[in-house]
């Protein structure tokens, strides 16, 4: 085993929730997973189940106005970061999240509109990972969410100058490790009201 492999088993997660939800019409973090739980609460709880202690949620100003009254119980142990320029896209939110790490660590990247993540899936992805590798869940040949990035990739993102850049282009420079899963929901994004109504029948 190489000496530079991340061996600690300590990972973080950045939950990306700074999008303006323009196609949805309502703020995605507050969509209901069930009668008592929002998308954001549900996602946070899954990461807590696998003992991820460093949970960073990047939000926009509109989400911040609601977050403390909407999900008061779960946010106490979560690091909330406000992205004042969400129009710059995901890379700007990722950089903000990384800047607030307590120490360099492998990191899950979790979108708030992928609420179907489970502790079981996260455990299957939670392998020892080299700094310049990233792990992707794959269903029938298609990659999904979330991804787990090694510390070398995290460092590259933190140094990246262009906030509008695409993470997928950056990842082409690193080794991809695929983990097969029978969970087809890794492919699902809830982007529109029709998407939400398809999976959540009220």
Description:
- The protein has a single domain (12-199), classed as Spore Coat Polysaccharide Biosynthesis Protein SpsA, Chain A.
- It is 29% helix and 19% strand.
- The protein contains seven helices and eight strands; from the N terminus they run βαβαβαβαβββααβα.
- Strands 1, 2, 3, 4, 5, 6, 7 and 8 form an eight-stranded mixed sheet that branches.
- α3 crosses α5 (151-159).
- The longest helix is centred in the N-terminal third of the chain and has 11 residues, at 39-49.
- The protein is globular, with a radius of gyration of 16 Å.
- It starts with 11 loop residues before the first strand and ends with a helix.
- Residues 1-9 have low confidence and may be disordered.
Q: How would the blueprint of this fold be written?
A:
Blueprint: E1 12-17, H1 39-49, E2 54-59, H2 61-70, E3 79-82, H3 90-99, E4 107-111, H4 119-125, E5 133-139, E6 142-143, E7 147-149, H5 151-159, H6 167-171, E8 175-180, H7 193-199
Parallel strand pairs: 1-2, 1-4, 2-3, 5-8
Antiparallel strand pairs: 4-7, 5-6, 5-7
Secondary-structure class: alpha/beta
Query: How would you name the CATH homologous superfamily?
Result: Spore Coat Polysaccharide Biosynthesis Protein SpsA, Chain A
Question: Which range does the strand content fall in?
Answer: 15-25%
Outline: globular
How many distinct folded domains?
A: 1
Unreliable segments (pLDDT under 50, ≥5 consecutive)? 1-9
Any idea what the CATH architecture is?
Alpha-Beta Complex
| Percent of residues in helices | 25-40%
On the 0 to 100 scale, the average pLDDT is 86
Count of beta strands = 8
Give the terminus-to-terminus CA distance: 51 Å
Radius of gyration, rounded? 16 Å
């Amino acid at each position: 085993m190489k000496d530079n492999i991340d061996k600690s088993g300590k990972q973080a997660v950045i939950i990306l929730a700074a999008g303006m939800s323009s196609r949805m019409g309502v703020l995605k973090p507050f969509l209901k997973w069930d009668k008592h739980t929002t998308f954001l609460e549900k996602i946070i709880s899954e990461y807590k189940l696998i003992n991820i202690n460093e949970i960073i949620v990047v939000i926009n100003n509109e989400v911040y106005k609601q977050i403390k009254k909407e999900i008061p119980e779960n946010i106490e142990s979560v690091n909330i970061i406000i992205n004042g320029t969400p129009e710059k896209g995901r890379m700007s939110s990722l950089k903000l999240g990384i800047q607030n790490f307590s120490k360099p660590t492998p990191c899950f990247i979790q979108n708030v509109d992928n609420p179907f993540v489970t502790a079981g899936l996260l455990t299957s992805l939670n392998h020892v990972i080299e700094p310049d590798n990233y792990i992707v869940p794959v269903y029938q040949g298609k990659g999904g969410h979330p991804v787990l990035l090694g510390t070398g990739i995290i460092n590259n993102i933190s140094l990246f100058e262009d906030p509008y850049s695409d993470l997928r282009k950056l990842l082409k420079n690193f080794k991809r490790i695929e983990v097969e899963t029978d969970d087809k929901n890794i492919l699902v994004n809830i982007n529109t009201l029709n998407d939400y109504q398809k999976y959540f029948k009220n």
